[in-house]
Amino acid sequence: MLYPTPIAKLIESYSKLPGIGVKTATRLAFYTIGMEDEVVNEFAKNLLAAKRELSYCSICGNLTDQDPCAICQDDTRDKFTILIVEDSRDVSAMENIQEYHGLYHVLHGLISPMNGIGPDDINLKSLLTRLMDSEVSEVIVATNATADGEATSMYISRVLKPAGIKVTRLARGLAVGADIEYADELTLLRAIENRTEL
Amino acid sequence: MLYPTPIAKLIESYSKLPGIGVKTATRLAFYTIGMEDEVVNEFAKNLLAAKRELSYCSICGNLTDQDPCAICQDDTRDKFTILIVEDSRDVSAMENIQEYHGLYHVLHGLISPMNGIGPDDINLKSLLTRLMDSEVSEVIVATNATADGEATSMYISRVLKPAGIKVTRLARGLAVGADIEYADELTLLRAIENRTEL
After folding, report:
1. What is the ipTM, given to two decimal places?
2. Which of A7, A19, A53 is nearest residue B50 as measured by Cβ atoms?
3. Which PANTHER family match (chains A, B) (predicted)?
4. Are B1 and A71 inside 8 Å of each other by CB?
């Protein structure tokens, strides 16, 4: 024997989550049993509700509980700018700084030649359709500063520039608070290349 | 705005788990949304079932889905020995080695003078009642090798020895595979004290 069935099953469910192995899953399962009934009921309800009520915005691909999403529906936002991100978490990160007031487009992935993921495998086609009859004048590519992020950024710029749309990307340089001593070489290189006048 | 309500609520539920902060909870919540419907339904069901179906054995205090638990009900087990552990996970660890065939007693905590947890705050009284009219001849104290574990072990031995019950505890020494170089001083001290003849 190991654990009684109900806890064994709960451990199995927990260990399906990313980064959670059997030991952590076991700790979480035992902790769950000690939690208030109410809290666990709420947890189960939230799991089901998140799956049931959330979908992707048919315009921008952002995760939403209404379609189109709150951002696409918001008339006060700048309709001339679209910021392209990899996933909905990036939208939230960007919204948190309360500085960007344009629209978004969520790719749900990045072009990754190494992993055989091409432009057709991510949410790119809908961006092109979206741009075709719109007044968008600038597309800001805000993919991660990784190889796949760069590949995606290059591809988007190659496709959109001929259409006369201004394509920009987030600045590369030293992160605020970063130590030059510990910065990697590529970051330093970009930081010198993109130096700004004081 | 941050996240749509259903995901914000799910993040909140995840972050109530031990060792899971908001960043991890967010990652888990987004991952959950990408999981198969079936898997998430199962997860929610398992959460509720674990809370509903599990309780503590009225005899030994072990986590169980039947009362008395499978071990207490098992007539093939040695009724003369009780192994005392801190929680149900320790029971499983012990059962895994398939070497111990006696009964258990789960304390649900340890005596901790530093934290004001005394003998009455853990599942100890029921052990004394249990021993009173039983044929138990040996009690093995298998609490963790920590200060609280030692305190609990000392207390149990002080209470049970006068009643003529043999009280033993798990051996202290080098863990199998351990490097002497990296062993802490107390472990080395115990390893020398408890050296065995070859």
Report:
1. 0.79
2. A7
3. RECOMBINATION PROTEIN RECR
4. yes
